[in-house]
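Researcher: We plan to redesign the surface later, but first we want a full-length starting point. Tokens attached.
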């Protein structure tokens, strides 16, 4: 019955494609080069795309094909990921190193080639190897098809703001040193708005750092669509604009039921579009925007605050400058009740044009613990992990993933799994314990390269359970190739007999990056209708480096458009 249904659905999709007008092809060239940038009185050579930090914006319309030729002129191996693009039929363009491709080596190039179908909104692209995404990232803006409007009042103007970090140190040296010592890595020195840290930091580039400050120029009485992206390596961020309220209309390139808020919480990997209505008669010319982290857990983190300026181009009679007293009020750094309140406000639009297709029944239930753990310290070395005798590690169901030496997608496609991976990833924790209570005596993780295999069109429920081994922390989990519906979340241990009764199966939010609550769980549903090998990992770069990553292998379906296509001729070799 299921296959007849999916056959007729597939025929409908094909018919719809013929009837709808096709998009155009957009060409981009990304030259990867070193470039000098100065912030916080420090000039530093960073790796950039086309000499820009943040990198260039990819503009497209829903239905367009995008071709990006990436040419690597630096000594580092490199790949680019198009975060949130579903890559149906273009699985070889997804980008995570050693998952869907081998890296583009020095003086080599690769053309990422994909069509953006069934998606519109804000996403971003970033390097997907080691910590290179610190400086190699930029926006992806997908407009609706021609003559299709937004499901909210048309804004007068659109602006993009990428939140990021500035590091005085070389980020590749930072993670190399941390992996060597086993300790927590050094932290960033500032947060940034479109690359600028703002006047709260020491700066040598102008009076009170104003030259090092991002300014958003606006006119009174207008509506602006702000496309917000968190590209920071390791930090969830609170964002607020003094004396202005914003309306959230989209998350991860999916429309949501609009809701108002003064403050936003955004994890690395998440994108959000908001409407900003400017004041018709502002009493001041300038207002401050503020940005600082949300953090619970142990260890050090960058606890600084970045700011930027909202400037009315029609001067008001009020004071023309701002002082730091004018910073917007931001929640306290560990405000988990804000997290809970805020995340519960997201609901899918769920209209005829944008229906919710959350699986109502589940073929496969999977329960995954996510969190930190330890690895033994090599003999003859003193380590800086917990108790000085271990290294920090991180895992999913206690498996800390080792990357293979050939991409998993290649091994899978060519059926040449010469011991590169195993298919026995545990679908339930091998050892049960009180996940959010006292940790077990042995906190060491297992190392391995294992995948979960799903047959085509399986409806899957994943419960992601945070653990309090080392410390309970919120983890932003990102799944490649899919969006997932967030059907439930809670604190403590997931209770499979009680918690599903409270699931939202009507209008749950759909996202590509979901924050697992610190000391809690989140339940996700999706349908495995995109064959390929798809990475899933914490979007904190430090945790992915410690092994909080795994892959899903989704098998081909019966129909031609349900199969993994052959790799492009220029796919980089290992
Ligand atoms: C960057 O600056 C350093 C000195 O600070 C200089 O030696 C180097 O040539 C510069 N690199 C580029 C690409 O401009
Ligand atoms: C991009 O992919 C499409 C579909 O597979 C193919 O027809 C086209 O030739 C590719 N273009 C380039 C430049 O590789
Ligand atoms: C980074 O910066 C700090 C403080 O300036 C320094 O102590 C540390 O050795 C640097 N290097 C690395 C790899 O983090
Ligand atoms: C901005 O809001 C603060 C309280 O959050 C208030 O004290 C201040 O007067 C407001 N300023 C303007 C210009 O509206
Ligand atoms: C940030 O952390 C440092 C080091 O842990 C501490 O000295 C400082 O007081 C903290 N600053 C704020 C604003 O919390
Ligand atoms: C704001 O402007 C006034 C008048 O021009 C000046 O006296 C004051 O120092 C300025 N404050 C800041 C923080 O720039
Ligand atoms: C948050 O941090 C403050 C200051 O460090 C502390 O007093 C408070 O107990 C913390 N709250 C929670 C919920 O951890
Ligand atoms: C949740 O947020 C709303 C405003 O956005 C606020 O009125 C309410 O008090 C908050 N609830 C909690 C429990 O913090
Ligand atoms: C480790 O220590 C042992 C004895 O202390 C020594 O024989 C061995 O050579 C050391 N190994 C390394 C790699 O330093
Ligand atoms: C770990 O080592 C550092 C110095 O290397 C020392 O100060 C600290 O007391 C040690 N901690 C434990 C728990 O042994
Ligand atoms: C797990 O540990 C927490 C925190 O100590 C405790 O509140 C809870 O009752 C424990 N749950 C079970 C099932 O033992
Ligand atoms: C670059 O990638 C190739 C292929 O996987 C690998 O053999 C080589 O060691 C890598 N080089 C660096 C500097 O990581
Ligand atoms: Cu994490």
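Model: Full-length starting sequence:
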């Amino acid at each position: 019955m299921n296959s007849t249904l999916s056959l007729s659905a597939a025929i409908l999709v094909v018919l719809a494609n013929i009837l709808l007008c096709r998009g155009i092809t957009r060409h981009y060239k990304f030259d990867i080069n070193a470039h000098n940038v100065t912030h916080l009185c420090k000039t530093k050579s960073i790796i950039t795309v086309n000499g820009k930090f943040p990198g260039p914006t990819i503009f497209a319309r829903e239905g367009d094909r995008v071709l990006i030729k990436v040419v690597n002129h630096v000594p580092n191996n490199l790949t680019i990921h198009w975060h949130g693009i579903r890559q149906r039929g273009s699985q070889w363009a997804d980008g995570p190193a050693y998952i869907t491709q081998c890296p583009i080596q020095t003086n080599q190039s690769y053309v990422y080639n994909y069509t953006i179908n069934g998606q519109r909104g804000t996403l971003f692209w970033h390097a997907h190897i080691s910590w290179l995404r610190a400086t190699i990232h930029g926006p992806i803006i997908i407009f609706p098809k021609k003559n299709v409007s937004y499901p909210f009042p048309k804004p007068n103007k659109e602006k993009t703001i990428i939140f990021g970090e500035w590091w005085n140190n070389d980020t590749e040296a930072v993670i190399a040193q941390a992996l060597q010592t086993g300790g927590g890595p050094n932290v960033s020195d500032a947060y940034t708005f479109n690359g600028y840290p703002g006047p709260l930091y020491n700066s040598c580039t102008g009076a009170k750092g104003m030259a090092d400050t991002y300014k958003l120029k606006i006119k009174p009485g207008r509506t602006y669509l702000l496309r917000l992206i968190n590209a920071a390596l390791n930090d969830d961020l609170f964002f607020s604009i003094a004396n202005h309220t914003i309306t959230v209309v989209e998350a991860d390139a999916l429309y949501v039921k609009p809701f108002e808020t003064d403050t936003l919480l955004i994890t690395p990997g998440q994108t959000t579009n908001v409407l900003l209505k400017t004041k018709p008669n502002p009493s001041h010319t300038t207002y401050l925007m503020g940005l600082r982290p949300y953090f619970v857990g142990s260890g050090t983190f960058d606890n600084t605050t970045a700011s930027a300026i909202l400037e009315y181009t029609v001067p008001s009679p009020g004071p023309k400058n701002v002082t730091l007293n004018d910073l917007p009020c931001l929640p306290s750094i560990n405000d988990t009740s804000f997290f809970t309140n805020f995340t519960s406000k997201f609901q899918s639009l769920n209209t005829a044009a944008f229906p919710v297709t959350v699986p109502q029944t589940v073929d496969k239930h999977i329960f995954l613990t996510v969190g930190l753990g330890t690895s033994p310290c090599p003999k003859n070395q003193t380590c800086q992990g917990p108790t000085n005798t271990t290294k920090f590690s991180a895992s999913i169901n206690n498996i800390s993933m080792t990357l293979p030496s050939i991409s998993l997608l290649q091994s899978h496609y060519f059926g040449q799994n010469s011991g590169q991976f195993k298919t026995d990833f545990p679908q339930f924790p091998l050892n049960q314990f009180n996940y959010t209570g006292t940790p077990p005596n042995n906190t060491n993780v297992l190392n391995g390269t294992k995948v979960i295999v799903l047959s085509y069109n399986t409806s899957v429920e994943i419960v992601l359970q945070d653990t309090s081994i080392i410390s309970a922390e919120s983890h932003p989990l990102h799944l490649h190739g899919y969006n997932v519906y967030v059907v439930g979340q809670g604190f403590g241990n997931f209770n499979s007999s009680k918690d599903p009764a409270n699931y939202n199966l009507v209008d749950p939010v759909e996202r590509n990056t979901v924050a697992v609550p610190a000391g809690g769980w989140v339940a996700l549903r999706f349908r495995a209708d995109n064959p390929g090998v798809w990475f899933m990992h914490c979007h904190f770069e430090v945790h992915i480096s410690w092994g909080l990553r795994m892959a899903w292998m989704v098998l081909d379906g019966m129909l031609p458009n349900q199969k993994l296509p052959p790799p492009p001729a220029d796919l980089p070799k290992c």
